[in-house]
Write a structure and sequence with these properties.
- The protein is flat.
- It contains 23 helices and 9 strands.
- It is α+β, with helices and mostly antiparallel strands.
- A 5-stranded mixed sheet has the order 4-7-8-6-9, sandwiched between helices. Strands 1-5 form a two-stranded antiparallel ribbon.
- Helices cover 50% and strands 8% of the residues.
- β2 and β3 form a beta hairpin.
């Protein structure tokens, strides 16, 4: 694997422009944002979008496109935000200017070697694996395995993380992180300063807001790492050489290792204090202290998932019983990483079932309820449902998919789920109607995802043609979702 910070400026530019970097969660394979990004990059020609605008985009609302993914089937959501392609490419051009990229590389190298060991800088594959698979391997090696090894040195581990990290990040702190607080303060109004340029790009796409960056792209993961690296530097300055403790950080998740309650709590206080100036705070609900590092290094849902890895095949000999075991696990650990892994495993397993089972509707009902209670599992659940229902005769398929659709519609405000529902329902010729704009684009409507009223250049406007995200017709995709189509879901699941 290779860290993104080790790439040349041109290699980094090519990496950020990939469709999988622009939106780093699973979407159906007939959707791809890369054609738009490539054309916008051609129009901008490594320049800044400011030369092609008639007004300041920060004066407009809806410049970025936001949609929601429901996290618990009720009232908890993860907001995804697709950055306006012109601003996205312009920001890449700014970051990946050779001089600016060297500044970023040098600054990130200065964050290394202190009390906090950052394990989450984006990595890319050099052996043909998908980038997300490489990132997960990095997490496993640098966080979980090292945590277990630390049980030889330490008796205590404390887990904590930042509440709404991306939504709370103070954008002016980007300049502090790159240039240092004093220089950034002296150059507060200097629009030529790299940190200020990045800050302005982000604020211009979010109605001028100074709180929060968008969530859903590798580029914003990278920006967040710059700010969190600056926080690491402040923690390092306060705590000094880590003689009797260790801190591992993976993005906004911290693990603190020491040999007493008092030492762990003193370190936690420093971490909390240094996060506050950049707009972040730690979550009390997710702060957990364990006095057994081996047990505390592995998430409870993962330990339980290891026990259930065969879905109880010895005793649960039928698919329905195995689904019920999976459903029971989902009730105990909803939306957990281990549940996503088990759903992925079952998706692969059930693909061997070639005849319609007598209890087909019951199996469909159980699988649907797993997705209803844990919407984060729905790409995998969609694969399971698509295989099960494919075994039914045509008239029964329509009946079952309508039942599934009516139930999943009760999950409130979940555009991401509806994108996947459309994939599995419409691929067999059943009409699917949704207010989700991406679904409407798939249905042939002319919909703008991003507010373009500030764009003055015709070529740029033409490049941002949302119909081009549809790279093939839904009718051309296979009825049954194959495991490789939900590769990101599967790879992320195996990170737990």
């Amino acid at each position: 694997m290779k860290k993104i910070i080790d790439l040349s400026s041109e290699e980094a530019r090519a990496y950020f422009i990939k469709g999988s970097s622009y939106f780093n969660s699973d979407i159906p394979n007939y959707l791809n944002f890369e054609p738009i990004l490539t054309d916008v990059a051609t129009v901008l020609n490594q320049g800044n979008v400011s030369a092609l605008r008639s007004a300041n985009p920060s004066d407009y609302s809806g410049v970025n496109y936001s949609f929601l993914a429901n996290k618990d089937g009720k009232f908890s959501w993860r907001p995804y935000e697709l950055i306006h392609p012109a601003i996205y490419i312009s920001l890449i051009n700014t970051l990946c200017d050779p001089t600016n990229w060297l500044i970023i590389q040098k600054r990130l190298s200065e964050f290394k070697g202190g009390a906090v060991d950052c394990c989450s800088l984006p990595v890319i594959s050099i052996d043909g694996q998908k980038d997300i698979a490489t990132q997960i391997k990095s997490w496993w090696q640098n966080i979980e395995q090292r945590s277990l090894a630390y049980s030889l040195e330490f008796s205590h581990v404390l887990h904590t993380d930042v509440v709404d990290c991306y939504g709370s990040l103070y954008t002016h702190s980007i300049s502090w992180a790159i240039h240092g607080l004093e220089e950034a303060k002296r150059n507060k109004g200097n629009n030529a300063l790299l940190g200020n340029k990045i800050d302005m790009h982000i604020r211009s796409s979010r109605h001028g807001q100074t709180n929060g960056i968008s969530q859903g792209s590798v580029l914003m993961d990278f920006i967040a790492e710059i700010v969190l690296g600056y926080v690491d530097e402040q923690i390092n300055a306060e705590l000094g050489t880590p003689a009797d403790f260790r801190i591992l950080r993976y993005r906004d998740d911290y693990r603190i290792f020491a040999n007493s309650d008092d030492r762990v709590e003193a370190i936690l206080k420093v971490v909390s204090e240094k996060l506050m100036p950049v707009g972040m705070k730690l979550g009390v609900a997710k702060t957990v202290l364990s006095r057994n590092i081996v047990e505390g290094s592995i998430k409870p849902d993962k330990l339980a998932g290891i026990d259930l890895q065969d879905l109880g095949e010895t005793n649960a000999t039928t698919m329905q019983k195995q689904l019920l075991r999976l459903h029971s696990f989902g009730q105990r650990f909803p939306n957990s990483g281990a549940l996503r892994r088990l759903v992925s495993d079952f998706h692969t397993k059930i693909s061997t079932q070639s005849e319609k089972p007598d209890d087909l509707e019951v199996q469909v009902a159980i699988a649907t309820d797993i997705g209803f209670v844990s919407p984060s599992t729905f790409p995998g659940v969609a694969g399971i449902l698509s295989h099960l229902i494919s075994l039914a005769p045509p008239e029964e398929k329509t009946y079952l998919w309508n039942k599934v659709h009516m139930k999943m519609k009760r999950v409130p405000y979940n555009g991401y789920l509806e994108i996947w529902l459309q994939r599995v329902i419409q691929s067999i010729g059943i009409s699917f109607f949704s207010e989700e704009p991406i679904c409407r684009i798939v249905n042939g409507e002319s919909i703008n995802l991003w507010e373009n009223g500030w764009v003055a250049n015709k070529d740029l406007n033409d490049a941002i043609n949302t119909s081009r995200i549809l790279v093939k017709s839904v009718s051309d995709v296979k009825e049954v979702v194959q495991p490789e189509e939900v590769a990101l879901f599967t790879q992320k699941a195996w990170g737990y």
